[in-house]
Amino acid sequence: METTEKNEFGTIHISDRAVAVLATKAVAAVSPQVSLHRSFAETAARKIGRLGDGYGVDVRLRDQEIELTVRIDVKYGMRVPDLAIQVQQAVKDTLEEMTGYTVTAVHVLVQSISFDGTGEGQDE
């Protein structure tokens, strides 16, 4: 899905994928202790070259409002609520600045805790 904005010059379309890529970059900037979680399907798609940036983020666009669900893995030893709040704030600020849309919610799902230091957990 995409959202459309009309102005005197024409229309602007912003796709879910574009929003997901922006959110991905925002999460990456939060901390090396947090990484986006790839589902089994996303991992398979990446191996065959069908997955670029934007994984680990589900986007809902309605008019000029964005609601997201961000799936993350957290490195063991970190305070999970603090990192989740940082992710929410970073994603909200980045998307509102870059798109001009209102972010109504950033849901954070902590999918796994990484014990190996890579930031990539296991699928549940």
Describe this structure as you would to a colleague.
- The protein has a single domain, classed as Cation efflux protein, cytoplasmic domain (Alpha-Beta Plaits, 2-Layer Sandwich), CATH 3.30.70.
- It contains three helices and six strands; from the N terminus they run ββαβαββαβ.
- Residues 119-124 have low confidence and may be disordered.
- It has 124 residues and is of the alpha+beta class.
- The protein has helices at 16-30, 40-47, 80-99; strands at 2-7, 10-15, 34-36, 57-62, 65-75, 102-114.
- β1 (2-7) and β2 (10-15) form a beta hairpin.
- Helix content is 35%, strand content 36%.
- α1 (16-30) crosses α3 (80-99).
- The chain is elongated and about 55 Å long.
- The strands form two sheets. Strands 3, 4, 5 and 6 form a four-stranded mixed sheet that branches. Strands 1-2 form a two-stranded antiparallel sheet.
- It comes from Megasphaera vaginalis.
- InterPro entries: Asp23 (IPR005531).
- This is Asp23 family protein.
Topology overview:
Elements: E1 2-7, E2 10-15, H1 16-30, E3 34-36, H2 40-47, E4 57-62, E5 65-75, H3 80-99, E6 102-114
Parallel strand pairs: 5-6
Antiparallel strand pairs: 1-2, 3-5, 4-5
Helix pairs in contact: 1-3
Protein name: Asp23 family protein
InterPro entries: Asp23
Family: Belongs to the asp23 family.
User: CATH superfamily name?
Assistant: Cation efflux protein, cytoplasmic domain
Radius of gyration: 15 Å
What class would the helix/strand composition place it in?
Answer: alpha+beta
For the record, the CATH architecture stands as 2-Layer Sandwich
Based on CA inertia axes, which overall geometry fits? elongated
Runs in which pLDDT lies below 50 for 5 or more consecutive residues are 119-124
Number of helical segments? 3
Helicity range of the residues?
A: 25-40%
Count of individual domains: 1
